[in-house]
Amino acid sequence: MTELVVVLFYWGDSMLVACSRCGVIHERGDCKIQDGYSERRIKKRGEVERFRSSALWQRKRKKILDRDKHLCRVCLDGKYVPKAITNQRLEVHHIVPIVENEKLKLADDNLISICAFCHVLAEKGNVPRDYLFGLVKIPPRGHYVEN
């Protein structure tokens, strides 16, 4: 997989970028290779950020954290990382990302509580989606205190 590297340059008041599409340095959005993909992706990313700051998402996030007992489900299972009970820096992960399927953004079976470390692993594909879907189907088990 190729990594995208963006280099920023400032020329007066303008911010220039090394374009990953054409290889030329120009102002953002001035690429001569225009197929609409970048504009759609930028628009979609903005919509995702607005969604993540919404009260609707915050309520859903809390519900998923409560369902998962405020524990990292991947650490708790111990298959992809050394078994641990982690509740530090918890995040709610969309197993199928919003940009791939917006209809699943609030589906309980597409959301799982994981720590920041495991979130990076999941985003890179080092923790398979099928495995995460399997964890969602079963309640967390291990040594934790019920409230």
Output the helix-strand order.
EEEHHHEEHH
User: Radius of gyration in whole Å, from Cα?
Assistant: 19 Å
Give helix % range: 25-40%
**Largest β-sheet summary:** 3 strands, antiparallel
**Strand line-up across the major sheet:** 1-2-3
Strand content: 5-15%
Outline type: elongated
Record field, number of beta strands: 5
N- to C-terminal separation?
A: 44 Å
Uncertain segments: 1-6
* Structural class determined from secondary elements: alpha+beta
Report mean pLDDT, rounded to a whole number: 79
Number of helices: 5
Organism: Phascolarctobacterium faecium
Pfam family, one: HNH
GO molecular function: endonuclease activity; hydrolase activity; nucleic acid binding; zinc ion binding
Family: Belongs to the HNH nuclease family.
Write structural notes for this entry.
The chain has a 3-stranded antiparallel sheet with strand order 1-2-3, with no helix packed on it. Strands 4-5 form a two-stranded antiparallel ribbon. The radius of gyration is 19 Å and the shape is elongated. The longest helix has 16 residues, at 37-52. It has 5 helices and 5 strands. Helix content is 35%, strand content 15%. Residues 1-6 have low confidence and may be disordered. It has a domain at 55-137. The chain is of the alpha+beta class and 147 residues long.
